[in-house]
Every structure is written in structure tokens, then in C-alpha cells.
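Quick review question:
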């Protein structure tokens, strides 16, 4: 049985079938319209992506919608990744798409759920991420994070909470990599000063 499996694996490798390719190669094949490569990419990455989205959003319906929108965007725009500079991570690219779709979903939800201006309360409630940080991070660290400028906090959230690289954070926030590095350095200095 294992001999047959080895032979089958060898035949697939010779044919270059999707199961034997890494994610970057799968995306490049998706860019050429390869449905099997797309199915394999989905099979490999959707469980991980679902877990990652659920860390940011507890609403299963929103997570499902974002997942669907993400893979639709991957199918439609795989050539954007395939044409990008070498060295990019397909998984990072996928997360960047999903994170943007999740932000869009939050904005749509807030827009539709917003009360009329006359009924709006005078005080503002904390952002969803701030509420999560309150429950996860101690008072001292949470206070220091909340005092950071929004652009510095966004970099820390992307790089520390989401685990994105400098390049991925740059794409997610729409700023140059050098700006991401500078903001990350400024955020670390500000946090260090606040906590000492």
C-alpha cells in the first residue's frame, strides 16, 4: 500500500499537481485560472484563516461573509500577487485581503447600526479592539496602549496582535515599509516610557 502511495505521489509531483505545491505556487496557478489549485489553496488556508478571523470577530456570520469575500478576491486578483516582487508570502497576502474585508464588514455594520443623529448619546463608546484589549491586557499596559497615537497603535496591533511582517503591515495600512518601521520604533519607545 505504501509503495502504491509513493508511486502516486511521484506521478503527482511529475505532473505538478496542486497537492505538491507550496502556497505561492498555488496562487500563481490560480492566477492562470487553475481551479484545482484554487481548491487546494482553500483547503489548506481556510481553516487557519477562519481561526484568525474569529480572533478578531465573534460573529460567525461576519466571519463567513469575510471568508467568502476573501477567496472571491483571491480568485479575481491572484495575478496581482503573481506579478508582485519575489519573496512575498502568499499566506500574508491572503491575510491582508481578509483583514481589509473584515474592516470593511465592521464599517458596513457600524453604518447600518448607527442610531439617528438626534438619538446618538453624547459620550462615545470604546472601539471593539479597545474592549478586547481591556479584557486581555492588564490595566497598566492597556492604558499605555490607549494613550498611543492611533497610527502607532495600528502598527502595534498589526505586527504584535496579528503577527504580520513589516511588509504585510505596510500593505494592510497603506503606508511605506519605512513608515511602518518608524512607527513601530516610536510605539516601542512610547510604551517603554509609559511602563517605566
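Suggested answer, residue by residue:
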Amino acid at each position: 500500500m505504501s509503495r502504491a502511495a509513493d508511486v502516486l505521489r511521484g506521478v503527482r509531483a511529475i505532473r505538478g499537481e496542486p497537492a505538491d505545491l507550496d502556497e505561492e505556487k498555488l496562487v500563481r496557478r490560480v492566477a492562470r485560472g487553475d481551479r484545482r489549485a484554487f481548491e487546494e489553496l482553500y483547503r489548506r488556508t481556510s481553516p487557519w484563516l477562519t481561526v484568525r478571523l474569529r480572533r478578531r470577530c465573534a460573529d460567525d456570520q461576519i466571519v463567513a461573509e469575510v471568508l467568502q469575500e476573501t477567496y472571491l478576491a483571491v480568485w479575481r486578483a491572484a495575478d496581482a500577487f503573481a506579478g508582485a516582487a519575489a519573496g512575498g508570502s502568499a499566506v500574508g497576502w491572503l491575510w491582508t485581503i481578509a483583514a481589509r474585508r473584515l474592516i470593511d464588514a465592521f464599517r458596513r455594520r457600524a453604518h447600518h447600526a448607527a442610531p439617528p443623529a438626534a438619538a446618538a448619546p453624547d459620550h462615545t463608546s470604546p472601539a471593539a479592539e479597545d474592549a478586547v484589549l481591556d479584557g486581555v491586557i492588564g490595566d497598566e499596559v492597556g492604558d499605555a496602549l490607549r494613550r498611543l497615537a492611533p497610527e502607532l497603535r495600528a502598527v502595534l496591533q498589526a505586527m504584535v496582535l496579528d503577527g504580520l511582517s513589516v511588509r504585510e503591515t505596510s500593505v494592510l495600512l497603506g503606508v511605506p515599509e519605512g513608515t511602518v518601521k518608524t512607527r513601530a520604533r516610536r510605539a516601542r519607545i512610547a510604551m517603554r516610557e509609559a511602563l517605566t
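Why it works: The chain has two domains: 14-111, 126-196. The longest helix spans residues 90-113.
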